[in-house]
Amino acid sequence: MKKALLKNTLREIRNTKARFISILMIIALGVGFFVGVKSASPSMEKMARDYYSDTNLMDFRIVSTVGFDEDDVKAVKSCEKIKDVMPSYFSDVTVSLDDTSKTIRLMSAPSEYEENNAISTIELVEGRMPLKKNEIVVESASLYDYNIGDTITIDEKVYDTDVSEQLKGLEYTIVGTVKSPMYISFERGTTTIGDGKIDEYAYVHEDAFDIERYTVIYATIDIGKEVSPFSDDYEKIRDDIARKLEETADERVEVFIDENIDKAQKEIDKNRKELIKKKADTKKELADAKAKIDEGESEYYSQISSAQAQIDSAEYTVSKSKSELYSKSKELNDNKDKFNTEISKAKKELENATSEYEKGCAKIEEAKQTKASLEAQVCDTATGTINTVVYSLPEGVSETVITTLSGYALSVTYDNAVGVLSEAKAFCNTAFSTAFDGAFDAAINGINTINENIALIDTEIKSGEEELLTAKTQLDDAKKELEEKESSTLKEFDKYDKEILDAQKQIASADSKLNDSKAQLNDAKESGLSKINEGKAEYEKAEKDAQKGFREAEEKIDDAQKELDSVETPKWYVFTRDDNPGYSGFSSNTNRVDAVATVFPLFFLLVAMLVCLTTMTRLVEEKRTEIGTLKALGYNNSSIISKFIIYACLAAFFGCILGFATCVPILPRVIWNAYGMLYDMRDIEIVVHKFSLFSALVAAFACCALVTLGVCYKSLRHKPATLMRPKTPKAGKRILLERITVLWNHFNFSSKVTWRNLFRYKSRLFMTAIGIAGCTALMFTAFGLYDSINDIVTLQFESLSKYNTIIVTDEDKDEKDLSVLLKALDGDSRISDTAAVMQKNVSIKSDSKKVDSDVYISVAHDSKDFQKLITLRNRTTKDKITLCDDGVVLTEKLAKRLNVSVGDEVMVAEYDKPIKVTGIAENYVYNYIYMSSEVYEKLSGEKPKFNTVYAKSPYINEDVEKEIGTDYLKRDDVVAVSFTSTIQKEFDDMIGSMNMIVLVMIISAGALAIVVLYNLTNINLAERNREIATIKVLGFYHSETSAFVYRENIILTIIGIVFGLGLGIWLLQFVVNTVEIDNIMFGRDIHISSFVLSSVMTFVFSLIVNFIMYFRIKAINMVESLKSIE
Amino acid sequence: MSLVEFKNVIKQYTMGEVTINAVDDISFNIEEGEFAVVVGSSGAGKTTVLNILGGMDSATKGKVYVDGKDITKLSDKKLIEYRRLDIGFVFQFYNLIPNLTAKENVELATQISKNPLDCEKALNSVGLSERMNNFPAQLSGGEQQRVSIARALAKRPKLLLCDEPTGALDYNTGKSVLKLLQDTCKEEKMTVVLITHNQAITPMADRVIRMKSGKVIENRINDNPMDVNDIEW
User: Fold this and answer.
1) What is the ipTM of this complex?
2) How many Å apart are CA A1028 and CA A1039, to the nearest integer?
3) Nearest-CA residue of chain A relative to B52?
4) What pTM was computed for the model?
5) Alpha carbons B50 and A466: distance in angstroms, whole number
6) What percent of chain A has pLDDT over 70?
7) Mutate to test the interface with B, among A752, A758, A1033 (most CBs of B within 10 A)
């Protein structure tokens, strides 16, 4: 290119800065906004991807109703395509704070050895990780003001479970704050305890848990890093693996059932059998014992009675013996008496005889005594004589003599008296001669005489003795006889006595024996009885004990059985990331941004093209003479065109750079900040959406270059001479409006000018109108979108769903239980209305379409109650729809997805029976097929199992929710309690994020409007420079002059707004349909405020431009009017 | 008192370091009802005079009295009012609003005037009653200039300023336009100031102000102004 031409180009730019900048700006806006917004989604995705991969976010979170063991972990690990598996623990606990209680999910922090392949690692925000079992890290977004070093005390009891069963300690010291990739939003998910909502999460050391089986398994997929977790590929792979995991789950559950439940069941059965056997045994034993006792008793009684009999017979014998003995002894005594009398008689006789005898004896004795006394006399005489002799002996006699004599005296006896005397005499004679003879003789004489008497007496005695002797003999004989008789009799008596005594003794002994026996018997009786009683008591006790034991055992078994039964069938739940709170929302949110981003560039490009077109047209027209001159100078077309191309492309180039430099770093952040209210992740790193950048660049350059080319060729067709002549100004023309003379004549002239001008510069008209329309449409869409989402909550939860509490009941409960619950709810003053429904996820198809996700059938327990809480109405006509018995009512979105209308038939896949659609009801959240119980029964052939109760609490607030949640979760028949306020909150958050998008849209729309209007007004002014100068010369005030221009702008703005609103309605529908997710229908009503706001704001932007332009109009030099037409 | 009086008017343009006196200390006056012609070659300063007189530009120094009013002292708004009520302007290139018909172009002026002529009358007076509803593009140059004159006259200005009104017209048309102006001056007692480089026109003027290099070199009264039809050039 020639240097001069380049210089010329640059100079041209300097001279037409405003135009250049206009093109530049519109390109910058178009490219920047498009690429910027388009980049938001990939930037967010990239950030999320990095975050997920850095933290090794789990792909699956598997929990089970019974926990896991190592085998389960292995089974999961061995599943195809599973990379890492990390078993772990968690437990939901509550912490009481002042007057409230918060539910916290305590998880075990990945311990050190797992660190290398730990899943869902937590990021430390502050402090350090828990190292001991009593240390805890809380979430960094914790709503409560925890400080590091504080102590958290966990409630000992979480409702009815003891925490100590799961945790070793209750007090934990906060050592840090963390962020978990599983909780990217501020939602914390649900639990089965408390009010059903988790308020916070926290991590403790693994050792803090005291659980035998793992409570959770985290697993990651072996998938390349290049597969985005947001891609369909990922979902496909994940779903495949999830299916496999479910299979594994089923297997493991069976194993578990085998190993545990069956085992337990077997054990229980065994125990029961054993118990039964034992019971039987014991019963038998007891029966035996009882029999024994009975036997013993009967034996006892028989023994006792036999013993008694024996005793009785013995007694009889004894008494008989006694009486015999008595008679005998009486006889004996009689005999004895008789004998005694006889004896005593005999004795008396004998005594008599004896006394006679004794008398005889006494006589004899007397005689004898006489004899003796005589003999004594003899002796005495002898002795006396000796002694007298002695005495009389002369003195001097030898002692021998005396002694001899004394000897004699001493030896004197009756018989020897004479001899002695004679000797003594002899002696004396010897010694004394006869001195003493005399004395002796005398004594011998006397003795002789006495002898004689004695002899007489002797004879007497002899005869008496003889007599006596015979008497004696007789007596003795008699005595002897008597004695003999007596002794023999006595002997006999003695013998009898002895016999009797013996008998008596025998009897006594028998008696004593009998008594003994009796005593024994009594003893035996007593002891036996007591023994029996004891035995009986023992038996009874044993029986009681046994029964108690059995009862206990039975209870134990029953408990075990109950427990086992309550274990239900163990179930594994395979959760994906989508089940993490906020996770799926994130991708749908990024998608939403993307959808919005895809809609707008169309406008920007179109407008940019138009801006470029008018600007370049104007430029080329202004340079008409120059082009002619250059042509005349011999420049060829391409080099002449190149100037304009360069001009346009430079504008495009710098516009791209500007747009790229300003919007791309800012917009994704702005959008991300908008989501920052929802997510707690990381700062994003801008990822430029390359395709959109490329396409935007191509579009920008292409539009600039092509437009320029087109415009230039139009001029270059002419001959240089023609070009050098001024272009004849566009002729004024009557417009269609003038035909309506009535109207036209009422216009003042400036209106006429305005209208004619409008139609004179059609391209400008279109451009401005399109630009303004785009601006209005954008804003309208933004506001409309905002309202649409905002309406969901108010419409769904205020106009349609009148309930605010959802109670999920135990599916196993029957209708009786349900009525109990309903009664309880009826009696609850906090709750005004209830309606039980059966809800079930199904898939449904129509002739042409099939919808198999996010569809629920909702079977009304009582249609009346149901319609009290759920308004079924047509959205547009607001006509009520009733649940009738010959068809179902579909929600609007579902009907749309199925492409059915009232009267068509649909088929619930599970039941394979077509059913008529009797109504299509307005509904925004989720898709439902409403039907009455009868219809359900007809469809499925079974009675509905109601599993959900909708309840309306007229004065609901957070506290009431908490109360209700806590109260009803305590019930056995209630599985979960949730509140529509939670859903409402989710939407509020969504709306919060929408605010920012709306703001971005408004700003960009405003920028668009300003650039377009500015540019157009600018060109307008340039084209009408003379005209304006002339008007000024004519003496128009500034305001009048401006109005001359503005009127057009204003009319164009109004036209633009009108078209914009029309376009906006279409665009809103498009965006809503794009952005809408399957289970949500956005509000379809467009609020007046959307119309008003977008119109007013467009107008405001237009006014801003007009205001800026005012100064430019003011600055137009009147001298221009004097110049010739170029 | 003269209707127009220039007193030591200087207009300086500063172009970089160079200061050019476009009008260099000029003084002249024009009486009411006069047909004045300011004549001079290109660059003599006549357009500057026109600009200042027309209230489109202001003098750097000096005073300009129009009907006893010093227009150099006027505020922007007053100046507009001055243009609006006191001045009628006829441009070399007619400067009709292309989008308005002849009549409407006249209306453009009359609607802002205090006591305007009837548009149709004004157009009649310039001989365009037939073309009243035509757009400028449908009119010949002379016709356009007539519309322009009609537009200027309809305002009933005190002063009719004409900037080379024949510059873009052919000889005959030009002549007829000049004739129109002269007649207007005479019949309506309109003060007309005509700026031209065409010396040949001067005989028809009541007053001729000749300029050269920013100075008035001649200001004479033509005692016997000729009828346009008698002038040839």
Assistant:
1) 0.90
2) 12
3) A1119
4) 0.63
5) 238
6) 92
7) A1033
